[in-house]
Amino acid sequence: MKALRWISILIVAFVAAPMFIVVPMSFSHSQSFEFPPPGYWLGYYEAYFSDPRWTLPTLNSLLIGAGTALLTMVLVVPATFALTRARFKGRNALNLLLILPLTVPHIVVALGYYYYFGELGMVQSRLGVVLAHTCLSVPVAYLIVSATLKGFDRNLERAAQNLGASPLQAFFLVTFPVLRPGFLAAALFSFVHSFDEAVVSLFISGRDAATLPRQMFDSLRMQADPVISVVSTLILVVMILALTIPRLVRRARQAATAPRASQPSPVLGDRLENSC
């Protein structure tokens, strides 16, 4: 067990080691990437929040990621219910078709979307990037939702319908609350997948709908702007907060309810005092 623990620590250290280099460089006043930093300041953070070349791609990535997550869930949820519960001819072929984008290199997908969306006039538009990212996010969301749906007990829906609920009411009152964690996980993975995608964005987004990964790639290729380390640090902080805050809230709720559950009732306390 100790050997496995040390191996786990070494793996985590290996994965997290670049962050111990990127984070200090985000506070460096060097004109390029230099480690260790010759000095520290907050100038590059100010440059990131005040420069439209960075704020606009960040806003584009947030909007495109949100649109991708929404459109992905609208497409994936009905398709998952149909492919998981129904039995029809061609079901296996459709199942394979949904997973197929995972097997195709992104550079090939990007070329196909570039020529296809170019004929439709959707290159260099947010809508084109959302559609392209949705096609790439559908397989991931489908795997998550299908795994969640396969573990769902359909007797809960049948019981709700026996009590007078319509199929739609049974879905929103029974099915959706039970499967909500799986839906949220699928939407979150779709958002992250879109926010982090760079290859397709390089071909489709263009200058007007540039995403943050595209801007980072262009900046690194042109001049190695140290603002890239600021972006990486901010993304790391957001990820840590997203993982930490729910746990802290859960522990705070448990700590608030634990004393109430451990305190004896007044009647039981009186009985204990009388018995003594």
From TrEMBL:
Membrane topology qualifier: Multi-pass membrane protein
Transmembrane regions: 7-27, 62-84, 96-116, 128-149, 170-192, 226-245
Places the protein is found: Cell inner membrane; Cell membrane
PROSITE patterns xrefs: ABC_TM1
Domain ABC transmembrane type-1: from-to ranges: 58-249
Primary location: membrane
Family assignment from sequence similarity: Belongs to the binding-protein-dependent transport system permease family.
Name of the protein described by the UniProt record: ABC transporter permease
